[in-house]
Design goal:
Strand order of the largest sheet: 5-4-3-2-1-9-8-7-6
Radius of gyration: 17 Å
Order of helices and strands: HEHEHHEHHEHEEHEHEHEHH
Oligomer: single chain
CATH architecture: Alpha-Beta Barrel
Helix content: 40-55%
Number of helices: 12
CATH topology: TIM Barrel
Shape: globular
Length: 269
């Protein structure tokens, strides 16, 4: 397990709460604003997921897809995402873990070995590849390359996945398992607690690994419900929606800060 990620789960456990992990697409709506957003998020989140924008993503709602488009129109690419994370990490006081989240195609084009090296150089703690298959040779190569630089490979578990799939995923997953609450795209529906509890039961049959739950979590009430069963609550589309509606608003970062401050109130177990 990556030590930075281990620390946030250990700290949250002592404080009898879940971790709050926030997601935004990197360089949305532009580089300068994205940097300010990430710095603001670091005040409230235990960890931050930064999306590596991709124009043909398969698991994202229109909210995230619009964010991808804004970022790409602002010149986003994999190298600039790493540059952004490195700069933010150097400017914030807290040693907060950053996780890069994206799709296989940009990683493959960038080069898997180069990607792992950039993770290390940018002090990235974890990586999520949304569309990578456990049986794909690229998946094994990503896991091996990340392991060499002590970056956690975080796997996604959907409501449709059974114990066999979970066991295979755990072979390449150490810091936490990302349980998807709905069968669909991010931000398209409300969190489904029935699905969450079912997936967590299956995971707990074979592992004690920390569990993060995402997709459809937008309100303090959603956070409160999920925090009672999960080790981390992952919020993305709610933050990205604020960005999309306030790209020209000079109070954008304050709006995100207020939103996250309110969400944190629901973290207590």
């Amino acid at each position: 397990m990556n030590n930075d990620l281990k620390k946030i789960f250990d700290k949250a456990k002592l404080e009898k709460r879940s971790c709050l992990i926030g997601f935004v697409t990197g360089i949305d709506p532009d580089y300068k604003t994205s940097k300010k957003i990430l710095i603001e998020m670091s005040k409230y989140c235990d960890a931050i997921e930064v999306g590596n924008p991709f124009n043909t993503s398969t698991s994202d709602s229109s909210i995230i897809m619009d964010a991808n488009t804004r970022a790409l129109n602002s010149g986003a690419n994999t190298g600039k995402i790493f540059k952004l994370i490195k700069e933010v990490k150097s400017e914030i006081r807290k040693d907060i873990p950053f996780i890069i989240m994206g799709y296989l195609n940009p990683i493959y084009i960038y080069s898997i070995k180069k990607f792992a090296k950039s993770c290390k150089d940018s002090k990235v703690s974890g990586c999520i590849v949304v569309d990578s298959n456990n049986n794909a040779p690229e998946d094994k190569e990503i896991f091996t390359s990340l392991s060499k630089v002590n970056v956690s490979y975080i796997k996604l578990i959907a409501p449709t996945n059974g114990v066999s799939y979970i066991k295979k995923s755990l072979l390449r997953c150490s810091s936490f398992l990302y349980v998807v609450s709905i069968a669909g795209t991010t931000g398209s529906k409300q969190v489904n607690l029935k699905n969450v509890k079912k997936s967590i039961q299956l995971v707990r049959k074979v592992s004690k690994i920390p569990i993060g739950v995402g997709f459809g979590i937008k309100t303090k009430e959603d956070v409160s419900k999920v925090s009672k069963v999960a080790d981390a609550v992952i919020v993305g589309s709610g933050i990205v929606d604020i960005i999309g509606k306030n790209t020209k608003n000079h109070n954008l970062t304050k709006k995100i800060g207020s939103y996250l401050k309110n969400l944190k109130k629901g973290l207590k177990k």
